[in-house]
Amino acid sequence: MTSRDFCYWLQGYIEIGHDQMLDAGLNHDQLEIVKRHLSLVFKHEIDPSQGSQEHQAELQAIHDGNLNGEIFRC
Known about the structure:
Layout: H1 3-23, H2 28-46, H3 53-64
């Protein structure tokens, strides 16, 4: 697993298992620190490697569920 893969895994794990992580021993403040650091990794390391600002804006629109009026669902 690469560090990039780990970041994506961790992000998904936090999104899916937020309450379970709190139950497992992390307190709210600790979990927020992990989330902030993960956001920094995405901002400074992963996002810039995903192409031009225009391409990144398109990816963000897809992530937000709206690209040119189209709605995307998983």
